[in-house]
Amino acid sequence: MRDSADIFFAIMRAQLDYARCIDDDRLEEWPDFFADDCLYRVTSAENLRAGMEASLIFANSRGMLKDRVSALREANIYERQSYRHILGAPCLLSQKNERYRSETSFLVARILRGGATEVFATGRYLDLYGFEHGALKLFERVAVCDSSRIDTLLALPL
Description:
3 helices, alpha+beta, 7 strands
């Protein structure tokens, strides 16, 4: 069993690296934060409370995450934008069999091509971390947005 302080700092480091990857437009590296067999969803707090499985973004493998990045780079047409993540400290909720559940608050500002900056999303990451090939990976990430009013231009991952 690993020390909980070590796990806390490892998760915090992983969260910071994850956010920098997206904010720095290194989207091709984004799937590498996930285990091969993973779940990534973006949903609203209202849907989560109601037990609804509907998601704004859904992927259940790292391959699907790679396909999403390819589509963003090559196929989808959307206004160029970037994000700036502001993260809270992760809260380690539980650990069982070398898997670690955590919750981390986020605020994502969106910067549009013309330079306008707006608060795009606030919410929390509900994560399941574990080790795969010796590295800490996300086995599950549910990005729960506080508002049910989500901009239809949710192009980049949260």
